[in-house]
Amino acid sequence: MAAQRFVDLLNEQIGHEYAAHQQYVAIAVYYDTLTMPQMAALFYRQAVEERDHAMMMVQYLLDTDSTVAIPGVAAPTNAFADIVEPVELALAQEKRVTDQINALTAVAREEHDFASDQFMQWFIKEQVEEVSSMSDLLTVVRRNRADVENIEEYLRREASSEQADASAPPIAGALA
Q: Which of 168, 176, 169 has the alpha carbon at shortest distance from 61?
């Protein structure tokens, strides 16, 4: 069983991941209403990814015979001043999640909960990628705020055929 301090924080983190999911859906909808399909698609994918992170955490708690308590979340921001603001919000959110993931890892280590520490390593790697990609996107959006087509073209160019990360933790409820 995982250390109780870690379990309590991981249950909180599940809420943070669901809040990020909701925020990314709101951002995707915003870009969809502006007829920016590449930006919308990016944030819809981000939303699914955040939901999957929450479900990975749920599965870990189930696997360690720990209590799972799904918390509620606050409403996301739905209105934005311009096309830059949602990306600024997304980057701030990713940086906040990075701090939360690091705090979870620190607690696992303080509690000598080595399995939980190992579980968190994938999330640490993931957050480095998330902050980097969102930072790059913010640079592009700021530079091209007056040229939506350049932003959309950047995303088309940068789109890669992402493959599933074989090292990712299992997702609760996912079909094999």
A: 169
